[in-house]
Amino acid sequence: MSGNSMRTLSHRCLLRLSSRLSDVHSLAKSSPNQQRRFYWSLQNLMSGINHPNIPPTVNKSTSSSKVGPLGWYLSKLESKPLITKSVTTSLIFAAADITSQMMQSSAGSFDSLRTLRMGVYGLLLLGPSQHFWFNFLSKHLPKRDVLTTLKKILVGQALFGPPSTSVFLSYNAALQGESGDEIAARLKRDLIPTLMNGAMYWPFCDFVTFRFTLVHLQPLMNSSCAYLWTIYLTYMASLKIVSVD
C-alpha cells in the first residue's frame, strides 16, 4: 500500500471515528432503536467491516467473534427481543430456585415442580412484563441523567413492584392448591414485609440498570439482580399456608 493510500485511509477512519464520537453526547437522549443502531454501527466501525482496503483475514476474525455466545445473544435480542428476554428470565428464576432449595432443603430433597413453577413464571409473566415495562419507561422518561434515573426508580417501586410481587405470591400459592381465602391471608402476611425488604435492595440495582445500561439490555441486568432476590422470593413463596380459621 502506497503512502498516499495510507494517508487517505487514515483520514477516512479519523473522520468516521470523529463523527461517531460526536454521537455519544446525544446517545443518552436517543430512542431505544437509535441506541441499538449506534451500538452496532460503532462495533462495525471499530472492527473495520466492509472496508475495501482491509485484508480478508481481519474480516474473518471479526465474523468469528460475532458468532460467540455474547454475539449470538445480542443478535437474538435484536431479532427476537421478547422471546429472548422471557427465556433469559425463566432460566434465571429456575437457577435461583435451585440455589434456594440447596440452601433450605436437606440432602437428597429437591422439589422439581417448584423449580418448574418458577421457570414458567419467568417465561410467561415476569419476562414479558419486564420487556414492556422497560420500553415504557424509556419512551416516557428517555433521559439517563441522575434525576431521571431517580424518577424511574420511584415509579418502579410504586407501580411495578407491588403488582409484580402480588402476582408472584398469588401465582405460587394457587399452583400449590391454596384457596382464595388462603391466598388473601398469605398476601396479608407476606406482601408488606417482602416489599419493605425490596425497598432496601432494588433501588441500588435499579440505579445501575437505568443509569448505565442500554435499554435492550436492561431486562437482562434486572434479571441478573433478580437472581439473589428470587432466592428470597422463593423462600417467601414456600412458607407454610396461613391458617384462615
Descriptors:
0% strand; 81% helix; globular; 245 residues; 9 helices; mainly alpha
Account of the protein in words:
This protein has 245 residues and is mainly α. 81% of the residues lie in helices and 0% in strands. The protein contains nine helices and no strands. The protein has helices spanning 3-27, 32-47, 56-66, 69-79, 81-104, 112-140, 146-175, 180-212, 218-237. α1 (3-27) runs antiparallel to α2 (32-47) and α5 (81-104) runs parallel beside α9. The longest helix has 33 residues, at 180-212. The termini are far apart. Mean pLDDT is 78; it is low at 45-65.
Sum this structure up briefly.
The protein has 9 helices and no strands. It is mainly alpha-helical and 245 residues long.
Q: Kindly state the mean pLDDT as a whole number?
A: 78
Low-confidence stretches: 45-65
- Helix proportion: over 70%
> Outline, from the CA principal axes?
globular
Rg, Cα atoms, Å: 23 Å
Secondary structure tally: strands: 0
Main beta sheet, described?
none
Number of helices: 9
Task: Indicate the proportion of strand residues.
Answer: under 5%
Q: What is the terminal-to-terminal distance?
A: 88 Å
